[in-house]
Automatic annotation (TrEMBL):
Gene3D superfamilies: 3.30.70.100. Residues 2-92 form the DUF1330 domain. SUPFAM superfamilies: Dimeric alpha+beta barrel. This is DUF1330 domain-containing protein. InterPro entries: Dimeric_a/b-barrel, DUF1330. It comes from Salibaculum griseiflavum.
Length: 95
């Protein structure tokens, strides 16, 4: 079943986070991920607000987790650590 990769992010170092973004996109695409939303308009109704929200669709939970654990994504993630506060989850969706 397909899955959504959902990230809520507060960027604290835009330059380093920009490096993350440059590398993360290709890593996500290489694992079948397709961005549905990146930093668009949102309304926070409950919980902690983060100014950047990203949703990507993957063929499966396993594909999304494999992406996260891949060397290419981990290289990208090294630029986000210390440059952002992030919450990331993968959610299987019904179709």
């Amino acid at each position: 079943m397909p899955a959504l990769w959902i990230a809520h992010v507060t960027v604290t170092d835009p330059e380093s986070y920009g490096e993350y973004a440059k590398l993360a996109g290709p890593a996500i695409a290489a694992h079948g991920g397709k961005f549905l939303a990146r930093g668009g308009r949102f309304v926070q109704l409950e919980g902690k607000e983060r100014p950047r929200n990203v949703v990507a669709r993957f063929p499966s939970v396993e594909a999304a987790v494999a992406c996260y654990n891949s060397p290419d994504y981990q290289q990208a993630l090294s630029h986000a650590r210390g440059a952002s506060e992030r919450d990331l989850m993968v959610l299987e969706i019904d179709e």
